[in-house]
Amino acid sequence: MNTLKQALLDAQAQGLARIDAQLLLLHTLGSAPNDRAWLLAHDTDALTGAQALAFKALCQRRAAGEPVAYLTGTKAFFGLQLQVDARVLDPRPDTETLVEWALDRLQDTPRPRVLDLGTGSGAVALALQHQRPDAEVWAVDTSDSALAVAQANAQRLGLPVRFWAGSWCQPLPVEARFDVIVSNPPYVAMDDPHLSALTHEPLSALTSGPDGLDDIRTIVAQAGQHLVRGGWLLLEHGHDQAAAVRGLLEQAGFSAVSTRTDLPGLDRCSGGQWAGLG
Ligand code: GLN
């Protein structure tokens, strides 16, 4: 008999991480992704033939590199259940560092104005709006199909983020000013060998020129015009880009420039404060 337990063991023998196998099995059974405890309690239940086949097919796609989030159509991010698919980057837990930093910077600002550049699925903007219902959150993306995903998430979650289509700050009204601008832009170098493991995600959300810093340069150059005096620009970047990003921020006139690490301890975000005229 093909039990849930056996199906999970088979998937792991195929090379799947236990958590991935569990999420795919819950999806096959039509259960919620937060029902892993149920899965453990029912591990002697049998799968129907159709379920076993469907689960096997999902495991094969996962083994070939498709993100679990695309296979299940959903991803947990900062306490929200987002709907995601191949039109957007699969939101990473690393990016929760960016959200936490923004929340810290906004702690003493009532009704803050926040901008998320390159919002993708909407993950960062929606997490901030969810944590700070008093905030006015705007989000920009250059991809219409990404914006469709983000807008659908906002609507489903009942979060009133305002979306703009265009490249970085270009679609914004010239007079728009924010207390915090956040961005998880593309930052992988064009020839980074690690891209070969990311073939299922949109390349435009991942790569940014020969050193991966083209979009960060553009954002750093544009952001000051849209920050209040004392406002913050916080950027996610690659683990080996912190010094370069801090340099760009300092050159552009940001002060109090620093870097934060993610949970695994890698340099993941750098940011600074805008001292210029707001
Ligand atoms: N953190 C992702 C990765 O290296 C890249 C995300 C991005 O480019 N913003 O897998």
Word description of this protein:
With about 280 residues, the protein is of the alpha/beta class. The chain has ten helices and nine strands. It has helices at about 5-15, 20-30, 35-40, 50-65, 70, 95-105, 125-130, 145-155, 215-225, 240-250; strands at about 75, 80-85, 115, 135-140, 160-165, 180-185, 225-235, 255-260, 265-275. The strands form two sheets. A seven-stranded mixed beta sheet has the order 5-4-3-6-7-9-8, sandwiched between helices. The termini are far apart. The model has no long low-confidence stretch (mean pLDDT about 95).
Give keywords.
Rossmann fold, 20% strand, binds glutamine, alpha/beta, 36% helix, seven-stranded mixed sheet, 278 residues, elongated, two-stranded antiparallel sheet
Strand order of the largest sheet: 5-4-3-6-7-9-8
When the domains are counted, the total is 2
Specify the CATH class of the largest domain: Alpha Beta
Helix tally equals 10
Structural class based on helices, strands and sheet pairing: alpha/beta
The CATH fourth-level homologous superfamily of the largest domain: Vaccinia Virus protein VP39
- The CATH topology annotation of the largest domain reads as Rossmann fold
- Small-molecule components bound: glutamine
Radius of gyration: 20 Å
Question: Helix coverage percent of residues?
Answer: 25-40%
Overall mean pLDDT stands at 96
Layout of secondary structure:
Blueprint (H helix, E strand, L loop, with lengths): L3 H10 L4 H11 L7 H6 L7 H15 L4 H5 L1 E4 L2 E4 L12 H11 L6 E5 L5 H9 L4 E6 L2 H14 L4 E4 L12 E6 L30 H10 L3 E10 L5 H10 L2 E8 L5 E8 L4
Parallel strand pairs: 3-4, 3-6, 4-5, 6-7
Antiparallel strand pairs: 1-2, 7-9, 8-9
Helix pairs in contact: 1-2, 2-4, 6-7
